[in-house]
């Protein structure tokens, strides 16, 4: 870029922190989503039927543990998503508060527009003043040259 700016050390470290948070949150979302998919996967039955109560209890315990694990993973997934939303908010705030060149450009553009509007108004007022002065002069001549004065 032509107008590459050198950021102060604090801003650079803040941007590095944002980048690290982004990578960590995305990695967390990916890991948790992968684990949810793995726990939802149906295991193949190797036996024809489960004959004993111990096997059935073991299976129920496994299903309940998987459900708890899914809830934990889903919670972690939601937390990572919320963290990403917070990161986006922080980045927007950083951009708004620290993007001085664009703010200065916007202010300069606004000043330029207002100055041109002021010049246009000044020209119109000057023209109006001149027209009124001419009309007033004509009216005064008419009044002072009339017999009703």
From TrEMBL:
It comes from the Eukaryota. It is found in: Nucleus. Keywords: Nucleus, Transcription, Transcription regulation. One of its GO terms (biological process) is regulation of transcription by RNA polymerase II. Its main location: nucleus. GO terms for cellular component: mediator complex. GO terms for molecular function: transcription coregulator activity. The keyword Nucleus applies. Component of the Mediator complex, a coactivator involved in the regulated transcription of nearly all RNA polymerase II-dependent genes. Mediator functions as a bridge to convey information from gene-specific regulatory proteins to the basal RNA polymerase II transcription machinery. Mediator is recruited to promoters by direct interactions with regulatory proteins and serves as a scaffold for the assembly of a functional preinitiation complex with RNA polymerase II and the general transcription factors. PANTHER family: MEDIATOR OF RNA POLYMERASE II TRANSCRIPTION SUBUNIT 22 (PTHR12434). This is Mediator of RNA polymerase II transcription subunit 22. It comes from Gasterosteus aculeatus aculeatus. The lineage of its organism: Eukaryota, Metazoa, Chordata, Craniata, Vertebrata.
